[in-house]
Amino acid sequence: MKKLLTCSVWLLLSFTASVAQQSPQATFDEANTLFENGDLAEAFSLYRSIEASGHVSGALYLNMGIAAIQLDSLGLAKFYFLKATDFITTASQAETALDYVNSQFSRQSAMLPKLPWDRAVQWINEVPSAAGLFLIGFIVTTAGLILLYLSWFYNLSFQNISSYVIALVLTGSALAGLSFYADYVNQRYDAAVLINNSQRVLQAPNTDATLESIAYEGYDLTVDHWKSEEQPDWLYVRLGNGQYGWIQDSGVKIL
């Protein structure tokens, strides 16, 4: 009887705990209600708790961006609007919001146009992905090798068969090699946004190092993860104007 009572109590406590834990949607609805009632700080805290749980969505990031504007943090708002553009359902609204936020920064960063090669690599990572391009290259190369084997074992002979084989193998190999490079770029570099008012960009990861430039709130940065791993609390970045340097990681939000 005592054992049964203990088991019943344990089940009751477990049920109570499960009920007490709100679903992400319920928390999101509660945060929206707080936001509508003007309790911005509490609403933003709940939004962040949802983000930390991994239940992210375009609507969540869009609302976080709007809340950040109301909390007078344009840099943070830009970061969340950029995150919202990754979702089809909120991409259009997020782009409009980004245009507004970018127009509000007191200092605008000079932006060098991307080289065609950089745009091509970005397109590979966003559309077919490196894995998808590698698969295409593998199929093309395999097709060339199959054609070669067929010509050997079945005595196939038609005009310029060797040219077709060479073209397929070289094209497939080139695509596979390009996929490896695109994956390398994707692993090594990430876009980021500065959310602090300003931060010094230095020639070395040392507060006494020579000043390279100054980054201001909302500046777009490109973080070199491989080089940054060598120095805790510092990030090696490229600014939009092409300058490179070290910046303290506080205040930098990586996309």
Walkthrough of the structure:
The N terminus is likely disordered. The strands form two sheets. The chain has a five-stranded antiparallel β-sheet with strand order 6-5-4-1-7. A two-stranded antiparallel ribbon has the order 2-3. It is about 60% helix and about 15% strand. The N and C termini lie far apart (about 55 Å). It has ten helices and seven strands. The longest helix is centred in the C-terminal third of the chain and has 28 residues. It is an alpha+beta fold.
Topology of this protein?
Blueprint: H1 2-20, H2 24-36, H3 40-53, H4 58-70, H5 74-84, H6 91-104, H7 116-126, H8 129-153, H9 161-188, E1 189-194, E2 198-202, E3 211-216, E4 220-224, H10 225-228, E5 234-239, E6 244-248, E7 252-254
Antiparallel strand pairs: 1-4, 1-7, 2-3, 4-5, 5-6
Helix pairs in contact: 2-3, 3-4, 4-5, 4-6, 5-6, 7-9, 8-9
- Which structural class is indicated by helix and strand composition? alpha+beta
For the largest sheet, list the strands in their spatial order. Answer: 6-5-4-1-7
The fraction of residues in strands falls at: 5-15%
How many helices?
10
Number of strands: 7
Largest β-sheet summary:
5 strands, antiparallel
Order of helices and strands: HHHHHHHHHEEEEHEEE
Stretches with pLDDT under 50, minimum 5 residues: 1-20
Oligomer: single chain
What helical percentage do the residues reach?
55-70%
N-to-C span: 57 Å
Mean pLDDT: 84
- Rg over CA atoms, rounded to whole Å, is 26 Å
Shape: extended
